[in-house]
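hey can u check if this looks right to u? its 249 residues, i copy pasted from the old doc so theres a chance i mangled smth
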Amino acid sequence: MKYFTLEICIDSVESAIIAQNNNADRVELCANLLEGGTTPSYGMLLATRAEIDIEIALMIRPRGGDFCYSELEFDVMKQDIIIGRELDVDCFVFGILLPNGNIDVARTKELVELAKPRETTFHRAFDLTPDPFQALEDVIATGADRILTSGLQQKAIEGKQLIKELIIAANNRISIMPGSGVNLANRDELLNFTQAKELHMTAFTQIEGEMKFRPDHINMSSSKKITDYQINVADPNIIHDMKKKKSIH
């Protein structure tokens, strides 16, 4: 019987606690999830580490946008890893690309070395590379422990064929973790078809905020799709159900 590791992407201490209480194996701690995730505050990291015992993977991304970073931004990433190690992070999540879309092997390897002995994940910047099999070999060359990927598609279920091929090509040299649009409805198909051993998901639900006074003529977000009065938080039922039957047939 095989089992899979479930990683929940979160942006709050409350969500971290919910993930742990419902048998998640690891959380990926981020800020700004609407931009794909950036490095959270260290107050957030410190408070989260104090509340949970399961593994914390810390997003190392100094800004939204693309994955080509200046030397100043690269220095920020290194400093974030140093502080993250001091605060007992279990894994670091990052990805650096060259302007042509290929993996920036040299700088990624430098971050991997700085993070040791903690684990490292190359995130979905992988999905913006022109040649996924060359990118696979490049990430392996950096020494990273896993790749988070949707198979170069918007959702992992749409990229399942490539994910399967990447897992075969990896040949146990690195873990390939499907992510993006993972849910209970496609969990078994992803696990059984690709033979992945890890899955990544958000499992968010929206709850109403505490404010009763709600002026409707102003919005703090520049996006009209975002309301100031609803909060995303991890859904305990989704996480519980994802892990309730975790055998791969």
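The domain at 7-248 is CATH 3.20.20.380 (TIM Barrel).
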